[in-house]
Design brief:
Blueprint (H helix, E strand, L loop, with lengths): L1 H30 L1 H17 L3 H4 L6 E6 L4 H17 L4 E6 L6 H6 L4 E2 L1 E5 L5 E6 L4 H10 L8 E4 L4 E2 L15
Parallel strand pairs: 1-2, 5-6
Antiparallel strand pairs: 1-4, 3-7, 4-5
Helix pairs in contact: 2-4
Length: about 180
């Protein structure tokens, strides 16, 4: 008899504990959202704060051009490093960020043969391609290449890491003759 009377009390305690745990998780996510979602936020802000590529290639400043996607895990992983590089060099270098999922940038994706992301291209102030980094890169190596942009003679350098995301064809926006009416 006594166990039957304790059963509703136990159910109530379990409900309260479950609600308490869920509340703690939600509050923690709200308090630490920058920690959990910082990389995704950085990628979105890159695109919003990017210099227009047409301006970047004509204003006599070196250019840092990154091709990325918000779904790309390697891009998210590198975002804090890229952000610190941007903060340090943005007065002297154009920073251009092009989302490969945006059809608007298709001509640049083709022009620079982008088939893996992140892809970072570094250009000197005359717009000559100096370095191409594909995949996850060491921040120190990127900084070295940026510092080498100031030299008069820059041989082209391509650095590929096996950790990158393959660009998938975006079939959502493909039009066919029957899709317009």
């Amino acid at each position: 008899m006594q166990s039957e009377s304790q059963e509703p009390i136990l159910k109530t305690i379990l409900k309260v504990m479950l609600i308490l745990i869920i509340s703690i998780v939600i509050i923690s996510m709200l308090l630490f959202k920058n920690l959990f979602f910082k990389s995704t936020y950085l990628l979105k802000s890159f695109g919003e704060l990017s210099v227009d590529p047409e301006i970047a290639f004509t204003n006599n400043k070196p250019t840092f051009l990154e091709f990325y996607a918000e779904w790309c895990e390697v891009c998210k992983e590198m975002a804090p490093q890229v952000s610190s590089i941007k903060d340090e060099y943005e007065k002297d270098i154009n920073f251009v960020f092009l989302n490969v999922d945006n059809q608007k940038w298709g001509n640049y994706i083709q022009k620079f043969s982008v088939n893996g992301i992140p892809q970072v291209n570094l250009f000197d102030k005359e717009g000559n391609l100096i370095s191409t980094f594909i995949g996850k890169q060491d921040e120190i190596k990127i900084r070295e290449s940026i510092n080498n942009l100031k030299k008069e003679e820059n041989p082209y350098e391509e650095i590929i890491n096996t950790e990158f995301s393959i660009i998938q064809e975006n079939k959502k926006n493909v039009a066919n003759p029957r899709s317009h009416g």
